[in-house]
Amino acid sequence: MPAIKEFGFGFITTSSWNPVKDQYGVWPAIYGTVISSFIALAISVPIGLGVAIFLSEDYLPPAVQRITVFLVELLAAIPSVVYGLWGIFVLIPFLKGFTPLKGQGMLPAALILSVMILPTIAAIGRDAITNVESGMRQAALGLGATRWEAIIQIILPAASSGIIGGIMLALGRALGETMAVTMLIGNSNRVAAFDIFAPSNTVSSLLANQFAEASGLQVAALMYAALILFFITLVVNVLAQLFVTRLQRI
Fold first, then answer.
1. pLDDT tens track for 5-16
2. Those residues with Cβ within 8 angstroms of residue 213's Cβ, 6 or more apart along the chain or in another chain
3. Class of residue 38 by CB neighbours under 10 A (exposed 0-12, middle 13-18, buried 19+)
4. Cβ count within 10 A of residue 232
5. Is 23 helix (H, G, I), strand (E, B) or coil?
6. H helices within 90-216, ranges in order?
7. Residue 17 forms beta bridges with which residues?
8. What's the pTM?
9. 29, 35, 60, 140: least surrounded by Cβ within 10 Å?
10. Contact criterion met (CB below 8 Å) for 130 and 56
11. Separation CA 170–CA 113 (nearest Å)
12. Could you tell me which of 201, 206, 202 has the C-alpha nearest to residue 188?
C-alpha cells in the first residue's frame, strides 16, 4: 500500500529503479517477463506438440516409447538452478560463437525457459491426444484419410482443449520462473526493444535480487511488483480457461 499510494499507476509505466532516491518503476521488468515468456513459448510449442504426436501415435516400439516418455517428463524434475548453471557454462559460450550475444541476456534466458516448459507442453499434449477416442482415428482412416491427415484434421482438433490448457500452464510457469532466469537474463533494469541479445530483467528476478536487502519503501515497491506479476498470471489463466471452455463447447 505505501508504494501504491506513492507511485500509483505510474509505477507500471516508468523505468527508473533507484533505491537511493526511492524512485521505482517496474516497466522494464514487466517487458522482460512478457517477452522472454512468449519467446520461450514460440520455441517450445511446435517442438512440444511434435514430441506429443510422436509419443502418442505409435511411431516407436512400446518399450522405447515408455522410456522416452519418462525421459521427457524427467526434464520437469530438474531444479531450475541446474538449468541456470548449464546456461552459464554451456549455452552462453555456445551462442557467443555465432550471435552478437556478449554474455547474459534475453536470448539465453528465453532458450532455457523453452527447455523448462517443454515437458509440460509435451506431457499434457500427449495425454490429450491419447485420450481421443480410437474410433475417430479408425473412422478417418476408413474414409480414406492418410495417417497425417487423420492426425491434423481429426485428432488435434479433438484434443485441442487439452493441448491449449497445457500451453497456458507452461506459459504460467515461464512467467513465474525465478532462479534460472535470474542467472541468465543479465538483470538490467532498462528496456532494449527488439534486441534479444541485450541484458534485461523480469519481475521474478527483480524480487530474487533485491528482496533480501530491501528496506522501507523499496520493500513496498517489490511487493507492488509481485502483485502486478500475480495479476498478469491471473489474467493469463482466466483467458486460457475461457478459451478452453469455448473449444469444449465447439
1. 888 888 888 888
2. none
3. middle
4. 18
5. strand
6. 92-96, 106-130, 134-142, 147-150, 156-158, 160-176, 179-184, 203-210
7. 24
8. 0.88
9. 60
10. yes
11. 10
12. 201
